[in-house]
Amino acid sequence: LVMIPAGNKVWTLATEIAWSLGRRGLTLRAQDCLIAACALTTGASVLTDDRRFDHIPGLALLAPDGELDSW
Asked: Given pLDDT bands bounded at 50, 70 and 90, which one contains residue 66?
C-alpha cells in the first residue's frame, strides 16, 4: 500500500466533489469524496463496486465482474 498525504489540495478537491454532486442532487459519503480526491490528484484508479463513484468526472474506476464477491 502507498500512503497518499491528504493535504489542503486533496481536502479542497474532496469538498469540491461533494459540492458538485450535491448541486446535482447526488450524495457521496465524505470518506468516499476523500478517496476520489486522492485518486484524482495522484492519477490512481479506484477499485469499487459502488456505482455512485460513476458520477465523478475524470475518476478512473476498476470494477471486475464478480471478483469483489469473493472478498
From this structure: low
Q: Residues 26-58, buried b or exposed e (16+ Cβ, 10 A)? A: eebeeebbbbbbbbbbeeeebebeeeebeebee
pLDDT digit string, tens, across residues 26-38:
999 999 999 999 9
Do 36 and 53 form a contact (C-beta atoms < 8 A)?
yes
φ and ψ of 38, to 5 deg: -60, -45
What is the C-alpha separation between 43 and 60, in angstroms, rounded?
A: 8
Q: What is the pTM of this model?
A: 0.84
CA distance 40 to 13: 9
